[in-house]
Amino acid sequence: MPDLSDGFAPADADARPLWVLGPDDLKAWRADQPAHVGNWLDKAGFAAQAGRVIVVPSKTGGVHGAVLGLGEAGQRDRHRFLVGGARASLPEGDWQLAGNLDPDAAAEAALGWLLAGYAFGRYAKAPSPAARLVPPTAVDADRIAAIAAGEALTRDLINTPANDMGPAELESAARDLATAFGAGITVTAGDALKDANFPLIHTVGRAAAPHRAPRLIEMTWGDTGPRLTLVGKGVCFDTGGLNLKPGASMGLMKKDMGGAATVLGLARMIMALKLPLRLRVLVPAVENAVGSDAFRPGDILTARDGKTVEINNTDAEGRLVLADALALAAEEASDLTVSMATLTGAARVAVGPDLAPFFCDDDGIAAAFAAGGAAARDPVWRMPFWAPYEQMIEPGIADLDNAPKGGFAGAITAALFLRRFAGDGTRYAHFDIYGWQPQSAPARPKGGVGQGARAILAALPGVLGL
After folding, report:
1. Please, what are the domains in the chain?
2. Tell me: the pLDDT tens digits for 355-366?
3. Most buried of 235, 247, 389, 411 (most Cβ within 10 A)?
4. CA diameter of the chain
């Protein structure tokens, strides 16, 4: 995992100024600058356009500083991490922010700067920007670095192809994380899943090769405080099973463990920040493979808690492995349980790749997630647990249907399915994330990306009373 914190320079560094300006600030700022600065900007046509970066020379041919445009005030919600996006355009050396940035904007700038240093370099050299930033005095640099490190872990796990990120490798990543922070970890794998009563996890993963056997990974950390349980879907590759996906639909299936990657990244943030809580992380890790022992459409399976599930599509396997993990989570009291999964295409149709939709019955928790997402520049959007659709997941021949026919409300029916296993009275939220940046954007290169983790982290103090 890359060390993104090396993008920060010491507080006493001899740093050049990076002025961050909107069009309304530009005239007054120019009045305080040497004449050659204004002339240079005029020749470049700089008008503080959003994301536009101009490096300004000194009279002696060196670098006087740089100017970054924020764009019109009414348009700024359309742009995230503009300061981070500027990093690659700046010469090597140390920089410090100048301009009228409030503490929230300064925190976004610092986080975006570090995230812009991420590059996935496991298989080919991937240079990161050489410019460093003196962290603004208004921000907690250690907290920003911890958040960036958690995000880097998530991105690395998602970006790694399935041949090097199967269930065993995902377990290894969880063990490394546990070792780094003194967490406990237990793993139940292969046929031992049947004896331990994880029938759905075993059934979904049993067709994979022996070295890619299914498993349930459980990590625990913390001795005091409220209890937080994170459950992440770890489908390390999804062929669709016997309901085989078309080839084009398999192209991104290495990211189908994005829920697991995101909860591990969030767990890293929580542990690095030493939040006063008791953390439990559950990851059902499988490969949904095609083989002689693959489960079939029409099968009826019995989950850990005794509920029966009719299989109408083997490509709706994520909710099955999550069902066993949520049933396990419900066996211990939790002050908040959150599941995260790259679960449905319907969620992408509804909100696109940039928003992380979530489901929650508790208005207070939902409001906290929304506020946390806005503050952390990690956009989320509440979706309904719509009770009238419960009948859509009740096939009659079994308690539940894993893939209701008709195609309507796919994200909602999947969330309703999961809620059946979360435990009565449990404060529960489910995030149906995409986990992928389809096109490069400031501080978000094309590839794996965390969604929802920063929003949850920002919400935890209020939700759990920390």
Report:
1. 4-129 (3.40.220.10), 146-464 (3.40.630.10)
2. 999 999 999 999
3. 235
4. 82
